[in-house]
Amino acid sequence: MALFSHHLIKLVSAKKLLHYYLAILIMPRYGWRVLLGVSAIPLVLFTIACKWLPESPRYHVLSGQPEKAMKTLEWIAKVNKKPLPRGTLTGTLPI
Predict the structure, then answer these.
(1) 27 and 44 assigned to the same domain
(2) pLDDT surpassing 80 at residue 23
(3) What are phi and psi of 85, to 5 degrees?
(4) HEC string of 26-54?
């Protein structure tokens, strides 16, 4: 977990630094509205991409939809060009 948080801190710091430089370049000439629009571009792209991102197989199993979970796992295996491991899906609701 510590390794993950270390990389997360680096990512957040890099994002802040990038936004700072964007502000230096954009604000004097175009103002805060353009900076806000440029800053929103990643969010808009992520929102559009979410249409094609599947739910996690774990979510499907826990919500009682094991057939959707299998389809998602098959799709993931196909995209990664790997065979789907043998086994069965099991899941229980957390207590």
Answers:
(1) yes
(2) yes
(3) -60, 150
(4) HHHHHCHHHHHHHHHHHHHHHHHHCCCCC
Residue 30 lies in a domain: yes
Q: Are residues 41 and 69 in the same domain?
A: no
| Per-residue confidence band for 92, with pLDDT thresholds at 50, 70 and 90 | low
Q: What is the pTM of this model?
A: 0.54
* Count of CA atoms in the C-beta half-sphere (13 A) of 50: 6
pLDDT higher than 60, residue 66: yes
Cβ density class 2-30: b for 16+ within 10 Å, e for less: eeeeeeeeeeeeeeeeeeeeeeeebeeee
62 close to 52: Cβ distance less than 8 angstroms: no
Does residue 93 sit within a domain? Answer: no
Q: What is the pLDDT of residues 24-62, one digit of tens each?
A: 999 999 999 999 999 999 999 999 998 888 888 888 988
Instruction: Tell me: do 10 and 45 sit in the same domain.
Output: yes
